Request: fold
Amino acid sequence: MNQENKRKISASDLVGLVLCVVFIPIIIINIILIASSYLNPSELPGVCGVKPAVVLSGSMEPTIQVGDLIFIRSTDPVTLQEGDVVCYLSSGKAITHRIVGVTEGEDGQPRYVTQGDANNAADRLAVTTDQVQGVWQGARIPQLGNAILFMQTTTGMLLFIICPLLLFF
Reply:
């Protein structure tokens, strides 16, 4: 084989390879999350038992900040106990609060009294086991949730989806 047939790897080839290695798994995970949100609209979407959630309020400050991306791990709700931080759905919204008490409902199932760390009173309604989406075990990425919310706006989609696609082609 002569030198003309050998191809040198340029910097742009290397950058392209690195971007493919980084973005292909992200795209696959996003497709799984989108599909699972349509297949199970009554649950937070997740991959391998881990569900990402963006924190929208300061009710858990200083432990969890507004704009953080947190990761909820699926769990058997009957194993939850006082002190656990759980994510549950209430009127279609995900809420992440700490369990401050466990009671028993009329049906014999546990009910969880929850409260945000920054709140001065417990939540009005107890949480049932079927509302629980999982438990938070401390995994969070500060402020990444704000970036994710921005990417869902028209400007964010233009900057982070349309422009890169145009540059790619």
